[in-house]
Amino acid sequence: MVLNYIWIAFFLIAFAVAVGKTLFCGDLTVWSDIMTASFGSATTAFELALGLTGILSLWLGLMKIGERAGVIQMFGRLVSPLFCRLFPGVPKEHPAMGSIFMNVSANMLGLDNAATPLGLKAMQELQSLNPEKEKATDAMIMFLVLNASGLCLIPISIIMYRAQAGAANPTDVFMPILVATFIATIVGIIALCLKQKISLKDPVLLGWLGGLSAVVGGLVWFFSSLPPEKVQAYSSFMSNFMLFSVIAMFLIAGLRKKFNLYEAFVEGAQEGFKTAVKIVPYLVAILVAIGMFRASGAMDVITDALAAGIAALGFDADWVGALPTAIMKPLSGSGSRGMMVDLMSTYGADSFVARVSAAIQGSTDTLFYVLAVYFGSVGVRKTRYAVGYGLLADITGSIAGIFAAYLFFG
Question: Engineering a disulfide at 325: which of 52, 236, 339, 394 sits with its beta carbon 3.0 to 4.6 angstroms away?
Answer without folding.
Answer: 339
